[in-house]
Design a protein that fits this description.
Chain lengths: 616, 171
């Protein structure tokens, strides 16, 4: 139990001292949700049993960590030599690789095991290394420490920021520091965090609340989950700092029920910190109380909007309300409340420890610091990356992301999820920050980045996002509820080859109306995917409307598969592959597709070795 | 809901489940302040659904009574959030991820194939209670796209052709 500042300093020192006696080799095993899904658990088991068998436990320590961000080569492990500080990452590790790695046990290549080049550094403790594009601040501990062991967090400067603010800073100076750092909301809006805190701090009210928005509903974004699974304490610590700054003693983390592992790790972290006196009553003996409770979401995307989220915590239907009053004035149960995103909080402790000037030196003038992106889609290195603001898209896609999957041609990258837009290859050299993305008709959003290639139909992509927002619209305001449905109906018509030029005009008008008249962010931004694809891929829309063609062959109603009788040798491979058995014909005789049953899946097209099947 | 009083209610049918729900409700600091009680509503529904697998009428009524809310308050919340269901789920819960990363890799075709082979639509349960089918938004395993989960087991890099195989495994 830590009862004073001296206790804390002593404890931190003892953790450092203890670490000197730890085994020389530390093997980090990536056990985030994606790692587990990819099969890391059997690899971990194999390590445990072999380390025991070979009696290596005094030399080798096995550490379960969160997501390292290199999802494309899970299961992945990192071997660190504590004495030399050198490390090596192995990817696509299989059970059989374990003995090879343990045979070697140095930070050298092991024959037959994939070695992954580390493409990041940690700005808080390391100097920028030439050639490394990624700089991890928010993800500084994710994939590096065991999230279930408080000591590991303490070892990595954990709770030092909280100790610093409680012992030597005033609420005003904390807010000033955050304000000067230029930190902006990482949930998508980009509102200056310090300003939000300042508004709430100015309210005279004995009860105030700090809410962490962990309702990551954006399909294709999973950075918040990675932070909560890999480094939950950094969020707790930042929330306590925010509480001290605005004069609040109670925090809530609103988390998706779909993230069971993150919930479990948060529960463990809250319990540990409370037992240690780092949260709860009289933190570190400074007389400051702050407790944190978890509240669960229940599958409503709109609850990512702060007023809707607040109503959801109150136990109501999660519908947004008009602002003002802003939550900072009247939020949860009408009390002053700040709502910040997980990634925003994950930056706070580093800013407090290293100072606003240090943070501001990273990134661009208007957007300080780094941003985490979930890089996915048709890209070779799918993963969770963190780059300084101002990094250009080309570097992200071709360097960090390793280029387009299967050697295909890049077509567009979608940022900002259902609220964002598509960016084409003409803009690949744009340095990305809040402003540049907005000027391109997209937005930062929470940081999902989906790469698309020549096989993707942009009309279909726009329809996909509209389907999502129509489904998730809470139905409170008319433009979003009805406008969204009509936009979807027109897009559906286009993809089915039944639309006219007039429909395109109506669609554009409808987008503008919904954008300008909806109540909350969901409605205001839901036309973005349509508007941006209409802007950059107008030809594609025209082709669907005028020629009734989908060049990417993604719109089933506009595709026909035909067997060329002259080329078909009757091998019947296509008939076997067809999931709906709509291809018939005798062996060694030309086959035929029953168009009325065909689901246009394209399996036959891909299976035919004689190019006898055409796709139009 | 109680048109047939001689019918055994879900609460009577599963005394153990009812007991654990009651224990949970007893552990909450509920009082006369409805506003404060309401703050626990979603947690209660989560707990109840984890116990019963779904939220039958009687369970909704029990929660409403204990929290001093109306049944319409409770039902209004249940119907708003897609996580809650008032229908008993099938033995095999099949979730097809339709997040963006899975979508661009063809998840819509996989979903259509499940619908076709089981013969049910999104969110429905087959009559023999064998399967429940849902489309879900991003499980966050985008590197494994397209992803399907069956009773929390993850199937990575799915194809429409593997649908039959998965359904067979559920037998």
């Amino acid at each position: 139990m830590i009862n004073s500042f001296e206790d804390f300093t002593e404890y931190s020192a003892s953790v450092k001292e203890k670490s000197l006696n730890k085994p020389e080799i530390n093997i980090l095993v990536s056990l985030g949700t994606c790692g587990i899904a990819a099969g890391t658990l059997p690899v971990q088991e194999e390590f445990i049993s072999q380390i025991k068998e070979r009696e290596l436990s005094s030399k080798v320590e096995l550490t379960d960590v969160g997501c390292m961000g290199i999802c494309y080569c899970e299961p992945s492990i990192e071997l660190i030599n504590r004495k030399t500080g050198k490390s090596i990452i192995y990817g696509n590790v299989k059970r059989d690789d374990v003995s090879l790695i343990l045979d070697c046990l140095t930070e050298k290549d092991v024959k037959g095991v994939d070695v992954i080049k580390k493409s990041w550094y940690y700005p808080e403790t390391e100097d920028a290394t030439a050639g490394l594009l990624q700089a991890k601040i928010a993800l500084r501990n994710t994939g590096r420490i065991n999230p279930e062991i408080l000591e590991e967090y303490i070892f990595n400067s954990g709770y030092q920021a909280l100790a610093k603010v409680l012992s030597s800073m005033t609420p005003k100076s904390i807010i000033q520091e955050v304000l000067q750092s230029g930190l902006r909301g990482r949930g998508g809006g980009g509102f200056p965090t310090g300003k939000k805190w300042d508004f709430a701090a100015a309210q005279k009210n004995e009860t105030k609340f700090v809410i962490c928005n962990a309702d990551e509903g954006d399909p294709g974004a999973f950075m918040d989950r990675a932070v909560l699974e890999g480094d939950p304490h950094s969020v707790l610590e930042a929330m306590a700092i925010a509480g001290f700054a605005i004069g609040s003693h109670k925090g809530f983390i609103y988390i998706r029920a779909e993230y069971p592992l993150a919930i479990k790790r948060l529960q463990i972290a809250i319990k540990q910190s409370t037992e240690f006196g780092l949260l709860g009553k009289n933190i570190m003996g400074f007389g400051f109380d702050f407790e944190i409770e978890l509240r669960y979401g229940a599958g409503a995307f709109v609850c990512g909007e702060e007023t809707a989220l607040i109503h959801s915590i109150e136990g109501l239907r999660g519908m947004p309300t008009t602002r003002p009053p802003f939550p900072a004035v009247a939020g949860l149960w009408e009390k002053p409340t700040i709502v910040n995103n997980v990634e925003t909080f994950a930056n706070v402790c580093a800013i407090i420890r290293k100072g606003a000037q240090w943070y501001k030196s990273i990134g661009t003038e208007t957007s300080a610091g780094t941003k985490v992106f979930a890089l996915a889609g048709k890209i070779n290195k799918v993963g969770l990356i963190e780059v300084p603001m101002g990094t250009n898209l080309r570097d992200i896609i071709y360097d960090v992301g390793g280029g387009i999957f299967d050697g295909k041609e890049f077509k567009a990258v979608q940022t900002g999820g259902p609220s964002g837009g598509c960016i084409t290859k003409d803009y690949l050299d744009t340095p990305i920050d809040y402003e540049t993305l907005k000027s391109l008709g997209s937005m930062m959003g929470s940081g999902g980045m989906i790469v698309m290639d020549e096989d993707d139909c942009m009309v279909n992509v726009a329809k996909f996002f509209l389907d999502f927002t129509v489904d998730e619209s809470c139905g409170k305001c008319t433009p979003c509820r009805i406008g969204g449905k009509h936009m979807y109906a027109i897009l559906d018509k286009i993809t089915k080859g039944r639309a006219s030029d007039k429909d395109l005009e109506t669609l554009r008008e409808l987008c503008q109306t919904v954008k300008s008249s909806s109540l909350c962010g969901l409605g205001m931004t839901c036309p973005n995917p349509v508007l941006s694809t209409m802007k950059y891929f107008e030809n594609e829309y025209r082709e669907h409307v005028a020629d009734k063609k989908c060049k990417a062959h993604k719109c089933p109603d506009l595709i026909t598969y035909l067997i060329d009788i002259g080329k078909c040798i009757g091998c019947s491979v296509c008939a076997k592959k067809c999931p709906v058995q709509c291809i018939s014909g005798k062996l060694k005789e030309p086959h035929k597709i029953d168009q009325s049953k065909c689901i246009k899946c394209g399996e036959c097209f891909m299976a035919c070795k004689f190019a006898a099947i055409s796709r139009n | 809901m109680c048109e047939n009083s001689s019918k055994i209610t879900v609460l009577e049918k599963y005394p153990d489940k009812t007991k654990s729900l009651n224990e949970f409700l007893n552990s909450l600091p509920l009082g006369a302040d409805i506003k404060s009680n309401r703050g626990f509503l979603i947690s209660c529904l989560h707990k109840a659904q984890s116990i019963f697998g779904y939220l039958p009428d009687e369970v909704q009524l029990l929660i409403a009574e204990r929290l001093r809310l109306t049944l319409s308050d409770v039902y209004g919340v249940i119907s708003f959030y897609s996580f809650f269901t008032t229908q008993p789920p099938g033995r095999n819960k099949i979730n097809v991820c339709l997040g963006t990363a899975c979508f661009v890799k063809g998840a819509d075709k996989i979903f259509a194939e499940f619908e076709k082979q089981i013969g049910i639509k999104d969110g429905a349960t087959s009559k023999d209670m064998k399967y429940s089918l849902s489309s879900i938004r991003c499980v966050g395993a985008c590197s494994l796209a397209p992803v399907v989960t069956v009773n929390d087991k993850v199937y990575a890099k799915m194809t429409p052709l593997r649908v039959r195989e998965i359904l067979k495994e559920c037998e």
